[in-house]
Structures are given as C-alpha cells and as structure tokens.
C-alpha cells in the first residue's frame, strides 16, 4: 500500500482507469447476457453470436503492434482518447445491425478501440506514472476490473429489459463519449517520464539491452498462460459436467471461480513491492498443473472438484497479475510500452483461439483431452518462469530480495 501514501498522481490515474476499464470490459460482455436476443434478431446461432467476442480479440491482437510507436511517441492518454472515439461507433453499428456482416463490423470497431484502451493502454499509463513501481498499482486495478462482469451483467440485463439490446448499445456508446473520453481528456495525467530513483542527482547509465531471447520467453509465458486461463474459464461448466457433476453442481462450483480469482489478486496486491511478477508467476503457476492433475485423477469426486476450483481459481487469478507485471521486471518506460504492444498480439490471439479449441477437445476426447493440453502448457509456463528468474536484471533481482 506504500504507493497510495507517496504519489497522489498515481491515485488519480488509478481512479480514472478503474472507472474506464470497468466500463470498457463490462460493456463488451454484452453477448453473455443478451446473446439469445441477439441471435433471434439477427438470425444467427448462439455460437455465431459469441464469435463476435473472438473477432474482438483477434482485432485487438492485430492492431496492438501498430500502436507500439503511438504509445511511445504520444503517450497512453492520447492513444486511449482516440481508442475511445473509435469504440463508440462500434456500439452504434451494433444498434443498426440487421445481418451478421454489420454485426461483425461492429465488433471489429470495438476491437480496434479496445486495442488502445483495454488493459495494455492502462498498464502503459500506470508505467508512465510509476515506472517499475507500477506493479502494485496494476494489481490494484485488476482487483477492480475483476468485478466488471459482476457489475455489468446485471446492468446489461436491466437495460435490455428496459430499452432492448439495441437501446443498450446506444447507452454504452454514450458512456464511452460522456464518461470515458472526458476522464482521459481532462482528468488523466499527461505523460511524465519517471525514474526508479527520482532523488538521484546524477542520471544513471542506461540499463543493458534485454536479449531478444528473453523477450521471446516472456511472450511464451504470457501467451501460454492466457491460452489456459481464457480457455478453461470459457469451458469450465461443461468441463465439470464432463467430470460427472450434475448441471446445478457444475454451476455452483463454477460460480465460485470469480470470487477466488479476485481474492488471489487481492493477496498479491497486499504484498506490495515485496515480490515481482516472476515470483508471483512461479507460485501461482505451480498451482495450475497440480489442480489439473488432481481433477484428472479424481474421477469427479466432490472434494477433488472443490480443491481444483480453489487451486485453479487462486492460481489463475494471481497469474493474471503476473501476465501484466512480468514485463516490468525487464522493461521500463518506452521499452515497456513497446513490449506490451507486441505481446498483445499473441496474447489476444490465444484468448480468441483457446475457447473453441478446448471446447472441441472436450467434445471429441472428453475432459482428459482439454485438461491434457492445458496441463502441458501450464508445466511449460512454470519451466520458462524458472529460466526468466535466472535472467532478472541485477538491480531488479536485488530489489526483490
């Protein structure tokens, strides 16, 4: 909690990002609540409706590398303002959609805007304010964004009952322009270059360049874990049913996941600066293969399912923080912005591909097929994190002791 006592600018940017990220992530969850209404109006199957979210993630990933120079040159605030202006018409296009083509064009626009405003831009803005000290701030922000579905699913349900799903889209477009855009334009701080030792009179020598192989390992860790987390979360209810649980039991266990994930993020947040993203990833990442092996060997025993939910929920929740903060170990300021923009491409592609791929494995080979692939990815993630731990820059490694 030290950053809250030392930097009022950081508190201000956290408040801005808490509001805008909640709105950004909460509103794109529209199909989860009104998917059947969307399908009925547009003549689309439910899987086709949810493919809109896959289009969003693919578009975000493809646009992210192009934004790297913009984040570096203009700063996160200006890029996020432009992204907000691009996102709002996406909801307007959804409002006017009468056929699948226009529906998917709407999600393309939302993906283009999201690549500038969702997560990556927020982390870059926090890094601009706090440098490597942004780790705890990112953890605090993720505590809030983890509640986006809890807040916006009932909000979407209420608005759709009152205005219909099309009216809800217009409300969300208005929120982008009336809430998010002014917050970025008038409240978010302008970019200020910081150093990790602001009191030093002499500018320190630039740190040694990070090898390209290290960046490749960072990309692999983040991408593989995103594949596991997004995929398992999407198929969790069906996975538990394949393990022999009744639908009501599977839903009850699945509903516990979000609470456990947010709680794990909270524990990492309370840890402050006492450990870095690699340490968080090692501890959290180890819990994932243990949870999967337990579920594979348990044959659907209730105690084992409960333990799986606890271990997987805690591990995946903390790993979400690690995915955002591992680059802070190696990069700062402009290099961090470039790294996050480049990482966003494989991360978002993995997020888009994993749910349908794991669902296919679940259908064809049962729970062992889906769990087997995610187990391999989870074990590989832990091994690569061990390698990254040995490649920590010396100054960061000393700070983590």
TrEMBL record:
SUPFAM superfamilies: MFS general substrate transporter. The keyword tRNA processing does not apply. Residues 13-396 form the Major facilitator superfamily (MFS) profile domain. Pfam families: MFS_1. InterPro entries: MFS, MFS_dom, MFS_trans_sf, Proton-linked_MCT. Keywords: Membrane, Transmembrane, Transmembrane helix. The chain crosses the membrane at residues 12-34, 46-67, 79-97, 103-126, 138-159, 165-187, 215-237, 279-297, 303-331, 369-388. This is MFS transporter. It comes from Bradyrhizobium guangzhouense.
């Amino acid at each position: 909690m030290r950053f809250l006592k030392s930097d009022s600018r950081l508190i201000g940017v956290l408040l801005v990002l808490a509001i805008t990220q909640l709105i950004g992530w909460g509103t794109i969850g529209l199909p989860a609540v009104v998917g059947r209404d969307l399908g009925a109006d547009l003549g689309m199957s439910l899987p086709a409706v949810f493919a809109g979210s896959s289009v969003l993630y693919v578009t975000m990933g493809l646009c992210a590398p192009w934004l790297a120079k913009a984040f570096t040159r203009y700063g996160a605030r200006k890029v996020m303002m432009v992204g907000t202006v691009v996102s709002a018409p996406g909801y307007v296009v959804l409002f006017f959609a009468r056929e699948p083509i226009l529906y998917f064009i709407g999600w393309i626009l939302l993906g283009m805007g999201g690549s500038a405003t969702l997560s990556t831009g927020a982390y870059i803005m926090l890094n601009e304010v706090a440098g490597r000290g942004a780790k705890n701030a990112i953890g605090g922000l993720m505590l809030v964004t983890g509640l986006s579905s809890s807040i916006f699913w009932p909000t979407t349900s209420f608005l759709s009952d009152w205005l219909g799903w099309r009216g809800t889209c217009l409300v969300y477009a208005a929120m982008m322009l009336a809430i998010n855009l002014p917050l970025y334009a008038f409240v978010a701080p302008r970019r200020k270059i910081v150093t990790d030792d602001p009191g030093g009179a002499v500018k320190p020598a630039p740190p040694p360049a990070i090898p390209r192989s290290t960046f490749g390992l960072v990309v692999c860790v983040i991408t593989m874990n995103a594949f596991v987390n997004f995929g398992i979360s999407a198929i969790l209810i069906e996975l538990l049913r394949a393990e022999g649980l009744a639908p009501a039991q599977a839903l009850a266990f699945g509903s516990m996941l979000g609470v456990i994930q947010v709680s794990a993020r909270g524990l990492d947040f309370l840890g402050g600066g006492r450990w870095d993203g690699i340490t968080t990833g090692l501890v959290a990442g180890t819990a994932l293969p243990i949870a999967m092996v337990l579920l594979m060997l348990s044959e659907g025993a209730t105690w084992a399912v409960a333990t799986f939910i606890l271990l997987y929920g805690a591990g995946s929740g903390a790993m979400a923080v690690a995915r955002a903060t591992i680059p802070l170990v190696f990069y700062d300021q402009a290099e961090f912005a470039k790294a996050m923009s480049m990482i966003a491409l494989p991360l978002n592609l993995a997020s888009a591909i994993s749910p349908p791929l794991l669902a296919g494995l679940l259908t064809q080979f049962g729970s062992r097929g889906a769990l087997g692939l995610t187990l391999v990815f989870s074990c590989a993630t832990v091994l690569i994190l061990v390698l990254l731990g040995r490649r920590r820059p010396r100054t960061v490694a000393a700070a983590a002791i």
